[in-house]
Amino acid sequence: MYSFDIDRQEDTKQIIKYYQNNGQKYKEIQFIKICKNNINKETRYAESKKNTP
User: Fold this and answer.
1) DSSP strand pairing (11-21 vs 40-49)
2) Which element (helix H / strand E) includes 9?
3) What domain of life is recorded for the organism (predicted)?
């Protein structure tokens, strides 16, 4: 599982995207940390999923 510490002064949004490439399914989970000083920090990673019938 992927996670990071969340400060009380920050709001965190999670966006999940699914897409296929060359017969493989990928899941992209994008965590966006929104700080009070309006500086956005993004952490992205993609998981390779086997294409099961």
Assistant:
1) unpaired
2) none
3) Bacteria
